[in-house]
């Protein structure tokens, strides 16, 4: 049965990545996935957190936030509530961890890259759009550093897959799909087709091993298409990312 | 002597107001003033704060924030620090107070309008751009309400004026001018040419009554031009704003 | 190659679940998994959170904490720091979500069950031990309610799997294994062998689909053994949990 | 028409400044303006904030607070609420900024002067009384430092002006006047008659340029009388403040 | 051997209680004990905390604070630190508990009395001066209520006793004595000579039963003299406090 | 008249101290006093707080907490509320101060001992059980340090005494007794029979000097029995605690 917006089960939403979106950051993009829009920036700081000092290694960390009216109902600002919520913490830890899987921290040297993902408009998949966009912002920022070896070792992109009652397993859920999905899974993979993160949740439900395999197949295919978009946006910088990167082996 | 970007002392930067910038809010704009960009949204909530309940009156309140990399150096998020800084508080109180001067709260009825001003890119004048943009978002949101009398009573716009050592009194300072100005003044005025707020500060310096008068003249002229832009952007809604509004009397 | 404590790759650590460990809570256990010890309690409150009022449904929520010297180095209390860390938030959200997959919230009625998991001693796998123990505490608490239909619909247990350089894929990692694992995955499953949560992370590394499958096989087998321990501890209450529960189908 | 307490429109309330009010601080006063009473202290610390280290310059910063029963209704303590409100932040930033306009930070050397303004009893004009009193406390503290050149360069005082429906433009509003004023303006000026701060607000109303000029005239005259009181209180120290200080030029 | 200020071991410092010190509160005093000065106010609120609603009983609660420069070194404001320190909490809990021992909460009716003790200048004994002063403020506030039976049942006053190396057991320690005392004890007693609180601490030292008895003798005598001062200050209100109150039995 | 659990007025509850309860801390016990159970740990850190640096002295500090379901009703976590309550602060300050009375901080050297008391199950007397248990954990930790002179100078134990309407003065109150006691007193004493802390409170009531003496007699006897238990548990370490320690003189 068809999806509410007419997409095939295996179809991504429209993707656009506008690079150098802002004038100040070392790297920045506006990524649009359907109606979801996220500004991703990468800032290079010439020092590392306490626990890494003097080891010659760098660090990548991420922060994530939504504008109050990115959502259909206005959400109270975390600054007003005086603390960061659990969902935000989970997402920003995920983004940072995922990016660190494709950056050689020794080659980065004693620098921190701060990645900021600010959701301007939300329609499902904000954390995966953030990862896909942040990878590009991070690569743009690294290209501004005069390093002997480019520290980015492979592409990195993310998408969601899920199970809908009426449509079965589908790729890249928008908000209306996500809110009624029985199973919801976020996948982060490299250009070479390796897994970085799998986060699958039965939403007050459960799923079988067979369903899991079907979802993984959908996600792998979708991520390869996202990587193709990243390559095109990065242009010349692409050639500096590891030779075998972006090739399923 | 000329300003660093070649503008006349009496010249505003380029202004653009893109209306209905986001899909979710009742009113939204992206306002661009030179390199300063602010997303302003207006959200209508069908209740009022505690202190107004049962009085048949509405309320307008504002929140202001900057993305971490809106600025040249990354600024730590207020949510991460766990509290809102003094500068942010001052600005959001100013925006709310200013907007309340041109809205008839009785005609609004028992509703709150939440105005959110999120600075995407900062190059000086973020608080005045926020007010100028927020007025349009607020008017767009009010136009969605089915009210017998339109509650917006006049236009409202804001700009800055200041004294530079090399150029004397100038209009609409960008960041590089603002950071070395001897006197810095923000003006909020109505379409009819009345003052709503004057905030003038000798930045570790002082200013004379004569200088004050020169600055007020510059600001009045600039605000009339901002109001003209607002009128054009609002189109048909313009006719619903008070009859004499926007006319110097 | 052998694991540092002589276990087979497919072997769990010793498990003990001491039920009714405390006198005050409606349900409580001390679960011991190797050297990891967690006190899990379930508290029944006769009301539900705001967002559920008047719907005739209940809620299950969880909190997780570690004593400062549960760990090898003393950890500062979150109460002293004035906020709950990201790791704690992630874990307590996971525990609550997982438990809600095997409880019929309509049958629970307008009640909240607060599950508290307090780690007395940590040696890896504290979040999975918490889930396995919390399920028993929750079932004990439900048995104290005089409900027409028992609201727990199946068993729920969790364990970790991971990839070690020297030993390959292994089950139930202790702290020394976990801290050097290349891949780390937490699995939560039901007695019927359905997945509730998969959280797999390449720790600054990545993993292939083949490795994923090997890990899932190990985890499924381990969880069935944990469910067997739960059944024995619950004794008579076991018969009240859904008929087909605990049977791979 | 007369004011409710019989004052002329151009008349200040009774002013008293009791110097060396406390035994511990380097400078302290109790300032009384009508029924408004503020304890102002100045503390000298032999270091500067991070952003000024090693520049040979000093710093002046201010904090402001009200006792809970300074007001007619008890106000909850900000320490109990765990955060400082927006109004308090605005006021303490204003006090600090204003004082820095009349102190030569290079001549102060690498020292911080902490100014504390604690309102014991409030009846309108607490921020302007704080500035007028703080100036004296600051001067007393500077006189205790053995500096080659006295760092205070001119007098500094503040008052409010406003527009009342029944009495027109008036000077130095008390609480009952302030709470119904249509326009409310705070002025901070030097002894030489220069402006340091103008903060004028139409309280959900607006004001014309002509009204603004009338208010500025009233305020200038009032501040000169406040400076005369400061001179008398400071006695011998007066001669150390800049030669031309306190003289309209 | 003599005390540093020439007092006998059994001698209190000079005491003054200035009643109706502020215009707004229902009851207020400035209490001066030597160089220690505390403003104590009592505020009557026409409701009680949640846990007492509908029981026909009232409540008395206290808050305590020090101005930053009440002390020799400036103390950071608790509002700035965002939390109330342990010492402040201990003291305000003590003040509230002590006052509740001499007020009949049923006779007070469903009202809360908020007692605020703000230390303007500190020279030892701020918590005991707060209790002695707060009792008078509380009685003044109760006298403003039109109650059939006066709810204050006896006098209440407090002082400190301690052991000094050079002078042995002494009454009413000032700051210089307190900071080197081996034993430090605060006593709160009623007019009838009953104990309300004893808090005795060996400051990194210990004390014998014999020393304890000597200290209690000194304290009892001192408190009777404080009660005499309270009686005189309260004047006519004195006759409304319980008939046998203030008489050792 | 008999106590509800059949104890004599002079009788302690059953005491057990299980030493080396946890594997990670330098010293740890589980102390059980009737139904009250507290885990006490001592952690040695090789540095001291700021205010002690460079003086060659050590420090002992304590933290106290209760698991949410240690109590009959679930208590919200202080970490969730974002701040530590007044009662907790009072207790942890008391524990730290008491322990410092029997440790020679010079002999400890520049080290901090962190004592953590976590109440697993509460039935009255948690603060006194914490002190009695913490003393043993502290001694165990000190025994792991290779110090020329053992820094613990005497035993330290604590108990409560109180006045019950039906049973008069009694020793070691459980929760049901404590909650209706007219007078409640906590005593901390050394093995040599010296007082370290006396905290006696008339709970909205008062007590006479005669009652005070009766309570002190009961408490002294109880503490001697607690010290005897500590000696037995410490075994060989006992001989390293000051020669005359634990002997009434």
UniProtKB/TrEMBL annotation, chains A, B, C, D, E, F:
One of its GO terms (biological process) is tRNA processing. Residues 11-141, 154-221 form the Exoribonuclease phosphorolytic domain. Gene3D superfamilies: GHMP Kinase, N-terminal domain. Phosphate binds at residues 87, 125-127. GO terms for molecular function: 3'-5'-RNA exonuclease activity; tRNA binding; tRNA nucleotidyltransferase activity. It catalyses: tRNA(n+1) + phosphate = tRNA(n) + a ribonucleoside 5'-diphosphate. Transmembrane segments: none annotated. Homohexameric ring arranged as a trimer of dimers. PANTHER family: EXOSOME COMPLEX COMPONENT, EXOSOME COMPLEX COMPONENT RRP41. NCBIfam families: RNasePH. Phosphorolytic 3'-5' exoribonuclease that plays an important role in tRNA 3'-end maturation. Removes nucleotide residues following the 3'-CCA terminus of tRNAs; can also add nucleotides to the ends of RNA molecules by using nucleoside diphosphates as substrates, but this may not be physiologically important. Probably plays a role in initiation of 16S rRNA degradation (leading to ribosome degradation) during starvation. Belongs to the RNase PH family. This is Ribonuclease PH. It comes from Planococcus lenghuensis.
């Amino acid at each position: 049965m068809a999806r509410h917006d007419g997409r095939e089960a295996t179809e991504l939403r429209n993707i656009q990545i506008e690079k150098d979106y802002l004038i100040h950051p070392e790297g920045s993009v506006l990524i649009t996935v359907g109606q979801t829009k996220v500004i991703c920036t990468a800032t290079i700081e010439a020092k590392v957190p306490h626990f890494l000092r003097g080891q010659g290694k760098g660090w990548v960390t991420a922060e994530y936030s939504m504008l109050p009216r990115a959502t259909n109902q206005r959400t109270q600002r975390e600054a007003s509530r005086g603390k960061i919520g659990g969902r935000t913490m989970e997402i920003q830890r995920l983004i940072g961890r995922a990016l660190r899987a494709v950056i050689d921290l020794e080659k980065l040297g004693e620098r921190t890259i701060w990645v900021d993902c600010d959701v301007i408009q939300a329609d499902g998949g904000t954390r995966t759009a953030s990862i896909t966009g942040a990878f590009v912002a991070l690569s743009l920022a690294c290209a501004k550093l005069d390093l002997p070896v480019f520290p980015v070792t492979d592409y990195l992109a993310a998408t969601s897959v899920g199970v809908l009652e009426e449509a079965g397993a589908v790729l890249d859920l928008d908000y209306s799909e996500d809110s009624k999905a029985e199973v919801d899974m976020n996948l982060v993979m490299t250009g070479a087709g390796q897994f970085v993160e799998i986060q699958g949740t039965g939403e007050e439900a459960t799923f079988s091993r067979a369903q899991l395999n079907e979802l993984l197949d959908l996600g792998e295919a979708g991520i390869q298409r996202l990587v193709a978009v990243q390559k095109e946006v990065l242009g010349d910088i692409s050639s500096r990312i590891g030779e075998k990167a972006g090739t399923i082996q």
